[in-house]
Amino acid sequence: MNFELSQLQSLIAALLWPLARISGLMLTAPVLGARTIPARVRVGLALVLTLVLMPLAPSPGKVDALSLAALVTVMQQLVVGAAMGFALKLAFEALSMGGELVASSMGLSFAQTMDPQQGHGAPALGQFYLLLATLIFLAMDGHLELISLLATGMQHGSWQAAMPGGNTLWALLGFASHLFAGAVLVALPAMAALLVVNLGFGAISRAAPAMNLFSIGFPISICLGFIAVWLGLRALPGAFDALQRAAFVLVRAISGA
What we know:
By secondary structure, this protein is mostly helical. The chain is about 75% helix and about 5% strand. It has helices spanning about 5-30, 40-55, 70-105, 125-140, 140-155, 165-175, 175-205, 215-230, 235-255; strands at about 110-115, 120-125. A two-stranded antiparallel sheet has the order 1-2. It starts with a helix and ends with a helix.
């Protein structure tokens, strides 16, 4: 089978558009772009998704794959894909930050573990919440919905489409406030319970100043903190689902789906 140069350029151009968006998504998206997944596996997954979704991508027409216009389009799609993954990542980071707030309240902030996604140390309780968020995301078929949004966005896109407008980018920055709101929503039950415990310790210290509250209060705070975390796990799927729904709304706006 012989290919002419024009046919080869058209094939490369048709491959570049979806590959750029998917590659940008894989750089920032949780689960699919996690550093714990080997780089070869991530590259292979990006290529497989590109080949599957390429028929839905807009036709490049007579666009030269080596032209400046094609390069600008590829860079735009990289930014779009990275913005989609970043919006979804904020929902995961909200739960991680909530775990860090609870760990600080119960005195477990010194219990550090290596975060493989960020490459630095993080409280173990925050990593526990992040692991639960990953399992909930997969159980709710969040990865399939993300791929569906990719396909819909490509189907309605065009080679001449520019990057998201200022309103969409401003909405992405505004969605970052959900990071703190979601963290407080996750950590509030345990923090409120521990606040009551600390107030009790304060009253005891005033009533019996000679009592060594550090040796007594520290294990009590940890035990009651774990009980509060255990009781609060029932509300965790609902809180994460609300954050995930809001993130997917923003992802849909960014992708043009």
